[in-house]
Write a structure and sequence with these properties.
Elements lengths: L16 E2 L8 E8 L6 E7 L3 E2 L10 E14 L4 E4 L3 E4 L8 E3 L3 E9 L2
Antiparallel strand pairs: 1-2, 2-3, 3-9, 4-8, 5-6, 5-7, 5-8, 5-9
């Protein structure tokens, strides 16, 4: 089943839920649209101040991922580089990224879609 069709709605209608199954304290997501068959989704991801994703390690996915930082900043521990609000990433399937630290917190908008 592809992502459900939805017309404009307030994203606050979608509750925050723990991301990554709750394995990273302080990491929450609002899933705006998802395809349960493929796992691709559109979401808002929230890093509370001080969130550190080191326990989850670097990530790599079997789908494309686009990320836009709306608020705050993310520090990539592997690259030792900080990415502030207003920056964007487009990651192909298999690209390793992270882990991340968000000392002051961060909010991202992400779109994930299947590899063709």
């Amino acid at each position: 089943m592809p992502k459900a069709e939805r017309e404009f709605f307030p994203i606050t209608d979608v509750d925050w839920t723990p991301a990554q199954g709750g394995t990273v304290p302080g990491l929450y997501e609002r899933i705006l649209a998802a395809d349960p068959a493929t796992g691709v989704a559109t979401r808002i991801l929230r890093f509370d101040p001080g969130t550190n994703t080191s326990a989850a390690g670097p990530q790599a996915h079997d789908f494309w991922e686009e990320v836009y930082i709306l608020e705050g900043a993310l520090h990539d521990l592997t690259l030792n580089q900080t990415f502030p609000s207003g920056t964007y990433a487009c990651r192909p399937p298999g690209m390793r990224h992270g882990p991340w630290v968000a000392p002051g917190g961060c909010l991202t908008f992400e779109v994930r879609y299947a590899q063709r």
